[in-house]
Every structure is written in structure tokens, then in C-alpha cells.
Amino acid sequence: MNVSSQYALRSLMRSTTRTLLSLIGVGIGCAIAAVAVAWIKGESGMMAESTAMSGQGYLQVVPRGWQESRDTRLRITGDWKKLRKTIEGVPGITVVTPQVETQGLLGMGTKVQGVSLLGGDPKSEREIRRTIRAVSQGRYLQADDKNALVLGSELAKRLDVSLNDEIVVTAVAPTGEMNSSLLTLVGVVHSGSRSIDATVAHTNLNDAIHLGGRPGVERFAILVNEPKDVGPLAQRVERAIDDSKIKEIAKVDTLTWIQVNPSLVAAKKADAAFSNAIIFVIVLLVILGITSAQLTGVLQRGREFSALLALGMKRRTLWRLIFTEALFTGIAGAVLATVFATPALWYLSQVGVDYGAISGNESGMNMSGILLDPIMKADVGIWVIPFLLVLAIGATLIGAIYPAIYSLRIDPASILRARN
Amino acid sequence: MSESEILISAEKLVREFGHGATMVRALRGIDLQIHSGEFVALVGPSGSGKTTLLNQLGALDQPSSGELTVLGKNLNQLNKTQRSELRLHRIGFVFQAYNLVPVLTARENVEFVLELQGVDATERRKRAIEVLDELGLGKDADRRPEELSGGEQQRVAVARAVASRPKLILADEPTANLDTENAEALMTMMRRLHDEQKMTFLFATHDPRVMRHAERIITLQDGSVLSDEAKEHGAEHHTDLELT
Ligand SMILES: Nc1ncnc2c1ncn2[C@@H]1O[C@H](COP(=O)(O)OP(=O)(O)OP(=O)(O)O)[C@@H](O)[C@H]1O
Ligand SMILES: [Mg+2]
Q: What values do phi and psi take at A95, rounded to 5?
């Protein structure tokens, strides 16, 4: 190591208290920032997952025009089974499930409830919809079911129905005529969220299509291997569909869960803005702390620096010295930040925080029909290390700018007047 | 002496501080020539302008008017960087308060200046040890300033000043903080550097112990040269000139 670096390092070690305080400041500040970022990342990852697992999937293939109009009457017609196979063949796609929703009335005796009856493929629907995994009575739908119905527990209670009851379902066909069927209740699901349990009404795809009177499926909901790569995957799906040239298939679009849920994304953006604001304030405090510590260091060594400038040291060298000290502080601060952040990150990523326990709602929080996992976890990865290094070193270097500028006031000519 | 090279040449050198009613005229037209290899004491009462003059000669400050040539450079024509280059490579400084870097050892203090000059690592280490040994400071090489006495610190400061063998060494009250024994040792050391390596020394001082060693004594008063007298070499006889 050259003498300049020794000089910087030992100057830091000489003023032990000040250096320690700076390090602790950088360490704590950057650790908090890292935890905040990991938390927000975890939250948004969880939001994506919860959204996908609420039955929407990470990707959806929808009729062209749906994205703009949100018109639930649009259908993918033609050989949609072949289309499903095509999508399933795209690498990275794990589950593709067709869905149809039909607005209708459920009637039992004197009780009537309006519902959006979901028709799906029982096997793949269960994989994509966390809310129906908890069957409290009976069973979920099976592939060969005909005129079978599964209801949420709250809805079953409101209709006052029990297993094997026959329920009248009425829907209005596009022609304006009423369509009615008798469906048998085969199972009741209990998600834990009252509003979700008040809306679940599932039947097999063909029954729902028949009842609605519109041929074709409303959409395919799709799960993927790598939720972070939904953008490129959507393009791959689109290309596969284009290349397949399936006959009679009306034009379709492939959307990501973000495009399907613009309002969720706005909420996510607001969250990110909030965490960015926190990080900004913390970093600002770290910078100010460093500035004050470094300025003290420069002021205390005014005489020393003045003598060195008199001996012919360049301003540039003095600046390098000040920034080298900042760099050392930044590196050591990043190490300390890692030490501080590790237990918190470990806890938040492994154990997480149970919002269910906090809010008294045991199995989940419902957010516009999406059941959020009550246990929130931070998303921690190797990114934390470079993040802390860049943040700590960046903050200390920026903090050193003012002291460096201030050092311009040190006058080499004053040293000859210094007496002792 | 007059045959040798002129290191410093000042003509009508004026340095004023402030302006208007509060203006201080610290130097009022100094004419001065110093030749290579001289050993000069700059004396005069407090406030007479000694430090101000040294700051001028050492390219640390700029004159208000007048001409000043140091080591062949017209200082009025040099910018800040060029002046700091001149100080770094060709002028050595010794301060009253030593001003060693406290966190560096004696050797590192010497090495640091060589590093600033761009001397490579092995060479500067070798030279630092060489010059410390030469000045009898070998045993102190790895000690920090706080572990050294004032006298030792000042000798390390001289080692730092002469490590790159500059032609001109400027010192302001180098012995003011030293006891007689250490002051004597310092002067002997500077004499030796002067005798053996033909270095030119100019020191501002009140100290009769220093003046005794000088070959030439320039006396300032109120910013002007009051007298400028050459003394016999060796100058063993005491001057009773006490100015403060
Ligand atoms: N930066 C400055 N601003 C204003 N006046 C100054 C400045 N520097 C020096 N002076 C004045 O210039 C005059 C000469 O000062 P200088 O320090 O050169 O004297 P000196 O001979 O070195 O004195 P001493 O023996 O006490 O060290 C003094 O009157 C001093 O007050
Ligand atoms: Mg003085």
C-alpha cells in the first residue's frame, strides 16, 4: 500500500470515536434501506403470486379487444382446445386453464343469489386457484362431472343449501332468452375470506358454456415457471399462437397479470414510491452524517494539510486523500450494514410477518377478490451485497464532496505563521 | 560567492495586506540576491516581515508588486500548479512547529513527500532510509512523531525537506521550540548539509544560536532591509545582536 493510502487509513483509525460513529451511521442507514427494499420486493413478488394464484394466472390469453373494452361477452371461438395445446407447448408455461364466466342467479327455495358462475377445467383450475384448495364439505369438481356445482361457504350459507341439494341456475342467453339448469351441490370451499367465500360458484366448463349460450372460452389463465419473465414469455406465447395457424380461431391477445390488473400495479407503484422516499431520506441522513464527520476531520487537520500543501502537495492529492477516507468508510460501512441487516433479512425472508395474526383474520387478506397470503416475506437475494456496497460507498463519496470543496480554503501560506 | 549562480533575486518586492485605512505594508520594496550555496539568517524584530518574505521566496504567496525570480523562475508568471510544482521538486521547507504528519512514521513522513514527487516505491523507501541514517535518525525511522522529542521531530522535518536534494531550503524559526542542545544539533546538521551538499539555507530567526552559524545576516525592519552583512566563515565569535 502506498503512503497516501496508509495516511488515509490511519487518519481514520486515529479518530476512533468519530470513525466508529460514522461507520455505525452508514451501517444502520444502509441496512434499513436494504431491508426496506427487500420488503417491498417481497411484497410485490407476493402480490404477483397472489394475483396469479387467485385464478388469474401470470399470463392470460384473451379475445382481441378485451383489454380495451373489458367486455365479458367476448369469447375465443374455434378450435380452442388446439389453442390450449399450443400454449401448453411453449417452454416455461406450466399450467393453462380455460375459463368462462356467466352471470346468473342461483335459486334454492325462496333464497336467490346473483353470482358470476365460473366454468373451468377442474384439474387445472385447482392448480391455479389457491382459494378452492380448502374444501370444507364434499369435494371439488371432477373432469367428468355433469351439472355439478361447488360453492363458497358463505354463499352456501346465504342460500341455505347443503351437499347434494339441487340448485336452479338461471342465465340470460345472447338471444335474450332465459336459460335454466339444475346443478347439484357437490362441494363447499372455505378460503377464510368472507368476501371470497361469498363469490365462489364453480361448475364444469361445458355446463357454463351451455348455460351462457355463447360458444368458446372467455380466456386462458396461465401459470409460468419464472414469474419475473412474464414479459418475454407473453411474446413467446404470442409467437407460438401466430405460428400455429389454428383454423377458425378468432384473434387473441396475450396479456401479463400487470396488464390484466392495472389498478394493482398502480398500488404497487405507490408502494415503491413510498419505499423510495424512505430510502432517499435515510441515504440523505447518511450523507449528512458523513459530511459532518469528514468536515470535522478536514478542519482538525487544517494545519497538517496546510503544511503538506506548502511542501508542494497538489489539491488533487488532498482531494484523493479525502475521498480515499470516504471510500474506506464506505467499504467498512457496507460490511457493517451487512452485519446489521443479516439477522433482520434472515428473519423477514424465512419467518416473515404474519398479517393474519396481526389483523385477527387467520387465513388470508382479501384485496379486490385476490386472497393475499397472510404471511408476508422479504425477498432477499445476492443482490443485497452489491446494493449495500453501492449505497454505502455512493453515500460516503457524496458526503465527502463538501469537505473536499471546503478544503480549498486551506491556505498553504498560513503554515509558516503556525507556532506550535 | 558573487561568482556563483543566483538562486533568488528580488527587486522592489512589495507585499501589502488589506486595503484602505487598514492596509498593512508588510514588505516595502525589498531588493535582495541570494546565491547558490549561501547560509543566510533573516533577522529582525517581530512584525518586520520575515515570514512574509519567506512566503514570497517559497512561492507560497504572490507579491503585490515587484519582481521575484526563484530558481530561475519568474514567480509572477507561474500559476498555482506551477508554483506548487516548484515547491515540491526544488524547495525544501522547515517549519517552526515541525508539522510532521502525526499518523505516519518518520520514514513514511519522508517517503510521503517523495511519493508526491512521483518517486517509485522501492526507490523512495531506499532514499528515505538513506537520508534518515545520514542525519543520524536511523533508529527513529519507524517511530511516529508523538514518540519523538521536539528536537528529533525537527530533524525528521529537515530530513523530509532535504530528501529530494532540493537546492534551496527555507526555514521559519526552526529552533524556536527547541532547547539549546537540540537547537545546536539542528544547526550542526544543517551546516553539514550545506557544507557537504552545497544546499542553500535561508532561515528567519530571532535565535542568536542560529545567527552564530550564519554566513550572512540580513536584517529586516518595517518591511525593508536594514542591513545585509557577510560574516566570516564558521562565525565562531558571538554576535551580541539581540533584536527582541
Ligand atoms: N495575512 C495577513 N493579513 C494582514 N496582515 C498580515 C498578514 N500576514 C502578515 N501580516 C502583517 O505583516 C507584518 C509582517 O508580519 P510577519 O509575520 O512577516 O513578521 P515577522 O517578521 O515574521 O514577525 P515574527 O518575528 O513575529 O514572526 C505584520 O505587521 C503582520 O501583522
Ligand atoms: Mg514570523
A: -135, 135
User: What pLDDT, on the 0 to 100 scale, is given for residue A359?
Assistant: 58
**CB of A420 within 8 A of CB of B177?**
yes
CB atoms within 10 A of CB A411: 14
Index of the ligand 1 atom closest to the CA of residue B55: 18
Distance CA A251, CA A80 (A): 11
- Cell 460514522 identifies what position? A22
Q: Among A252-266, A354-368, B97-111, B163-177, whose mean pLDDT is lowest?
A: A354-368
The secondary structure element, H or E, covering residue A263 is: helix A262-300
A82-91: pLDDT as tens digits: 999 999 999 9
Q: How many CB atoms are located within 10 Å of the residue A110 CB? A: 6
Region of poorest pLDDT, from A192-206, A377-391, B75-89: A192-206
| Pocket probe mutation, ligand 1, options B13, B16, B51, B95, max atoms within 8 Å of Cβ | B51
Q: Is B177 on the interface with A (CB under 8 A)?
A: yes
Query: What's the rounded Cα separation, in Å, for the pair A129 and A109?
Result: 30
Residue appearing with cell numbers 384473434 = A251
User: What are the tens digits of pLDDT across the range B8-63?
Assistant: 999 999 999 988 889 999 999 999 999 999 999 999 999 999 999 999 999 999 99
Residue A73 has pLDDT above 80, yes or no: yes
Which string of b and e fits A249-260 if b means at least 16 CB within 10 Å?
beebbbbbbbbb
Q: ipTM value, please give it.
A: 0.91
What the block records as the C-alpha cell of A239 is: 409467437
**Does B116 sit within 8 Å of A7, measured CB to CB?**
no
* CA atoms of B63 and B54, how far apart (whole Å): 11
- At how many degrees (to 10) do helices A16-52 and A262-300 cross? 170
Distance, CA of A100 to CA of A206 (rounded, Å): 9
What is the average per-residue pLDDT within A192-205?
A: 88
Cβ-Cβ contacts under 8 Å between A and B: the total is 92
Partner B, chain A 261-320, Cβ-Cβ below 8 Å: 303-304, 307-314, 317
Domain boundaries, chain B: 6-230
Spatial neighbors of A397 by CB under 8 A, at least 6 apart, are A323, A326, A327, A330
Ligand 1 nearest atom to the CA of residue A413, by list position: 1
Residue nearest to atom 4 of ligand 1 (CA): B17
Domain coordinates of chain A in residue numbers? Answer: 3-52+264-419, 57-260
Cell of A277: 422516499
| One CATH from 3.40.50.2000, 3.40.640.10, 3.40.50.300, 3.50.50.60 for B6-230 | 3.40.50.300
Cell of A218: 372467455
Please list the residues that pair with A168 across neighbouring strands. Answer: A107, A182
Cα distances from A238 to residues A83, A232, A245, in angstroms, run 11, 10, 12
What is the rounded CA–CA span in Å between residue A349 and residue A345? Answer: 6
Q: How far is A313 from chain B (nearest CA, A)?
A: 6
Residue A338: Cβ within 10 Å count: 19
% of chain A at pLDDT higher than 70? 94
Unique residue bearing C-alpha cell 505594508? B25
pLDDT above 60 (res A364): no
Beta strands in A225-357 (DSSP E): 252-256, 353-354
